Amino acid sequence: MLKIYNTLNNQKEEFQPIDANQVGIYVCGMTVYDLCHMGHARVMVMFDVITRHLRRNFPNVKYVRNITDIDDKIITRAIENNEDIYSLTNRFIDAMHEDEQSLGVLSPDIEPRATDSIDKMIDMIESLSKKGLAYQGTNGDVFYSVRKFKEYGKLSGKNLDDLVAGARVDVENHKKDPLDFVLWKKAKSGEPSWPSPWGNGRPGWHIECSAMSNHFISNHFDIHGGGMDLTFPHHENEIAQSEGANNCTFVNTWMHVGFVNIDDEKMSKSLNNFFTIRDVLKKYDGEALRYFLISSHYRSPLNYSETNIESAQSALIRLYNAIKGLNHNSVDSSLLEVDYEARFNAALNDDFNTPMALSVLFEIAKQINIERAANPNKANTLSSQLVQLGNNLGILNYNADEYLKRGSELSESEISKKINQREAARNSKDFTMSDQIRDELLELGIILEDSINGTTWRRK
RNA sequence: GGCUGGGUAGCAAAGCGGUUAUGCAGGGGCCUGCAAAGCCUUUUAGACCGGUUCGACUCCGGUCCCAGCCUCCA
């Protein structure tokens, strides 16, 4: 039984799909005007883990993650670069897809671009207009009348008077109420625009997610997710738009992923304390990064530091060391005295507890190391189980030997040559020479391991 | 100010009202020519104050501290 923490009521509840044959999940994706940073990586990886788990438990899962390819920042950046918005956004969409591949993230089923769904957004705004929930302001923009939607604030636990008292809301005199938010922005000259009943313009940010989730999944669907910073106002506004237009519940379960922090502060563009995925991949491999991202629970803050990533890398190497040299083609459950798979699944069923799931992997690894010499069949089956469960989390995707040798600066033949020289020295008991060769290789990041089957090497 | 979370051993990070989390790092041992890997073993916990309980890190109340949202943000 899967339990998910729902932001709507701030508690874990049993996940009951609207239709068990077709689970729908929508995640707010990126605004593509720049490279993705580690915070984006966390959202991509976590929802990848989540959808993989859903797919193992339900026959059909429709995972939609949008691409925001029109907004103020995109327009500003395109002007700065003196380029067309589509050439800008296409470039960063490609970059995003490359980053996802590096992190082992599977593609969503649908990745709708906002600019392909402008008509759906216009339809929705018209419907809101007809219901008296939207109006055109004195500047030509179309706004949502927040006070007319009685349940506004139910997701983030805010009440309207507190918001006004907070006084950080924009005081714009072309709105009827400072809390109202933009549905459609009138185009200024030279800006990209689309025709609409309110004149040429472009959509406000929030409307795209309402329109596209309704269109590509349904007016009422199972799970909607994103980063925690989207809870308010973005998701609150989506609820107002969708429920206002459709007169039905929009989403049953709201999921929000915690931030990646630096020195206990949120990583963000405005604080300029962010690391792009590419920056980090220059130094660490994608799977280690993925391990780092799933090593804490998705709702907790995750502190970015090189030490923490290096520790993740070491942990991952321990798993690869365990499966190295074993066959992992099939699980013979009669050889297993512990039902690791059940425990692994129970961990993920408890609100996607990835740290708990990982701890099961380490128990298997330890068991493999204990059994591998005396009981190869058992070691092989444990290894198969470990790889299978690791794959469920999107790790252990590589052949162990290849992974452990990844990115070596020396070629295999150069290393073999050194190993052979050292072997000769060892055979003649010239341990000074043999240790010297080992030290030279270690300087180059190559660790030698002697065993009864000869000497093997791996990357530090 | 309003609304969310959270404070766990050297670091990271979970579960759990009483029994080893787990990983990294450190100590001791085994193995090894010596190492590495691995195995065995071991040291460091639960912000603070009350309460409930036979028993609380775990439940309840309070205090202090931290982060996030309330403005674009994953």
Write the layout of secondary structure elements.
Layout: E1 3-6, E2 11-14, E3 23-27, H1 38-57, E4 61-65, H2 72-81, H3 85-102, H4 118-130, E5 134-136, E6 142-144, H5 160-166, E7 181-186, E8 201-203, H6 205-216, E9 221-227, H7 231-246, E10 251-257, E11 260-262, E12 265-266, H8 277-281, H9 286-294, E13 302-303, H10 306-323, H11 340-349, H12 354-371, H13 376-392, H14 400-404, H15 412-427, H16 431-443, E14 446-451, E15 454-459
Parallel strand pairs: 3-4, 3-9, 9-10, 11-13
Antiparallel strand pairs: 1-2, 5-6, 6-7, 7-8, 11-12, 14-15
The structure holds one RNA strand of 74 nucleotides.
Structure description:
- Strand 3, helix 1 and strand 4 form a beta-alpha-beta unit.
- This protein has a four-stranded parallel beta sheet with strand order 4-3-9-10, sandwiched between helices. A four-stranded antiparallel beta sheet has the order 5-6-7-8.
- Helix 12 runs antiparallel to helix 13.
- With 460 residues, the protein is of the alpha/beta class.
- The chain is elongated and about 90 Å long.
- The two termini are 41 Å apart.
- The protein is built from 16 helices and 15 strands.
- It binds one RNA strand of 74 nucleotides through helix 1, helix 5, helix 7, strand 12 and helix 10.
Structural class: alpha/beta
Tell me the strand order in the biggest sheet.
4-3-9-10
Number of strands: 15
Whole-angstrom Rg: 26 Å
Contiguous uncertain segments of 5+ residues: none
How much β-strand is present in the residues? 5-15%
Biggest β-sheet, characterized? 4 strands, parallel
